[in-house]
Write a structure and sequence with these properties.
Blueprint (H helix, E strand, L loop, with lengths): L28 H13 L4 H18 L6 E4 L4 H13 L4 E7 L5 H14 L2 E6 L2 H14 L6 H18 L3 E3 L4 H4 L5 H4 L4 H11 L12 H11 L3 E3 L9 H12 L12 H15 L4 H10 L5 H9 L5 H15 L3 H9 L12 H13 L9
Parallel strand pairs: 1-2, 1-4, 2-3, 4-5
Helix pairs in contact: 3-4, 3-11, 5-6, 5-9, 12-15, 13-14
Bound molecules: zinc ion.
Length: 377
């Protein structure tokens, strides 16, 4: 890595994010964005609750005569589970849970989804993404040697949910996205974004087989056509309430028999491999830095605890090797081939066709309108 190593004096973000900047006190731009942009507009108190109640009333009114008031994309993780609990119990709404099956979910996730459905008496719709197609896309991404190996799942999940809401005429999509655990958004270099142009280019160059059933929903379709053409709104209810992850976990365990698991996003086998192995070992990017920094900024973890956490391996070697074997089998490659992909020169979105400039414009606009407040770079 060129340049001198530096780590923020307030959180644990460091120069493994190539675009990070620091002030004279050694505080990074994620921290400054949090204190100056996010915090002043974030009201997880009485005021937030009143705003949320007003939103609930509006959703109920718009949902009159329909079977559901809104849909929730449910992963079985703590964010979407706690969101569901708030929406059903506190906001008294009729959500439809939608889970997207990419074939990589671990049992703990599926079991949590079942528990939520049973305990809260909800309906669940499962959308399955064609396994063969997603496998082919994931294999193409491995060959493309980019950091963002989870985009095939992420983009598919997101598109399946939005396209479904549109088909069913449901006007509100509620997401578990929140500042409390995600105020430090992983840098673009680590995770990139939902960019259909790049997805298609990578598949065209490295993909085999078909790419027809896989759901697509680019930024323009989502942010402009669905939002303004179809009036579909995306809401982040967890930002209106106090969301303390440890407390939320306890509530879920007590009320719905929810089961906790190791780390954020470790409910999915491929994601676990990507975040715990591919990203840190091949690129030196450790997403725990973002999670832990978010937890530090929101007072849920100390910096010392985060530094201790980061001294540990993201996940144990045995699980890593088992996951690798499983993934190779499913993708129809040998472990030697996986090692060859791993050894390829590192690439980024700049090496492929992309629509970043358009997306950048859309995000800048969202920032101007105050819809997006987190660092985008
Ligand atoms: Zn910082």
């Amino acid at each position: 890595m060129p340049g001198k190593y530096q780590i923020c004096t307030n959180c644990v973000m460091d120069t493994s994010d190539p675009q990070i900047t620091f002030d004279e006190q050694g505080q990074c731009d994620f921290c400054s964005n949090y204190y100056h942009t996010i915090l002043p507009s974030w009201h997880a108190d009485e005021r937030g609750w009143m705003e949320l109640e007003a939103l609930a009333l509006k959703m109920k009114k718009d949902g009159k005569g329909k079977q559901y008031d809104c849909i929730i994309g449910m992963s079985g993780g703590v964010d979407s589970s706690y969101l569901t609990y708030i929406v059903k119990i506190k906001m008294d709404l009729r959500p439809l849970l939608v889970t997207v099956d990419t074939g990589w979910n671990l049992d703990v996730a599926n079991e949590n989804v079942d528990r939520m459905v049973k305990a809260l008496g909800l309906d669940l719709e499962t959308i399955t993404i064609d396994y063969e197609e997603i496998n082919a896309l994931q294999l193409a991404f491995l060959k493309a040697a980019v950091p963002y190996q989870d985009l095939p799942q992420d983009c598919g999940l997101f598109a399946a949910l939005y396209n479904y809401a549109n088909e069913k005429g449901i006007k509100y999509i509620l997401t578990g996205g929140n500042y409390s655990t995600e105020c430090v958004k992983p840098p673009l270099e680590w995770t990139y974004i939902n960019d259909v142009t790049m997805l298609k280019d990578i598949f065209r160059r490295f993909g085999n087989g078909k790419f027809e059933k896989y759901p697509l929903c680019g930024m323009f379709k989502k942010r402009v056509w669905y939002r303004y053409g179809k009036g579909i709104q995306v809401l982040w209810p967890l930002n209106y309430v106090k969301y303390d992850k440890a407390e939320a976990t306890k509530i879920l365990e007590a009320k719905v028999g929810w089961k906790s698991y190791d780390k954020k996003h470790f409910e999915n086998r491929f994601t676990r491999f990507y975040e715990g192995y591919w990203l840190p070992r091949k690129f030196g990017y450790d997403k725990r830095r973002c999670y832990d920094s978010s937890m530090i900024l929101t007072g849920q973890m100390t910096r010392e605890e985060a530094l201790r956490d980061l001294e540990q391996q993201p996940y144990d070697e045995q699980t890593a090797m088992e996951d690798k074997k499983y993934i190779c089998e499913r993708l129809g490659i040998t472990e030697e081939q996986m090692d060859e992909f791993f050894a390829l020169p590192n690439k980024t979105y700049r090496d492929y066709k992309n629509s970043l400039w358009i997306i950048n414009m859309a995000v800048r606009l969202a920032m101007l309108l105050g819809v997006e407040k987190r660092n985008f770079r």
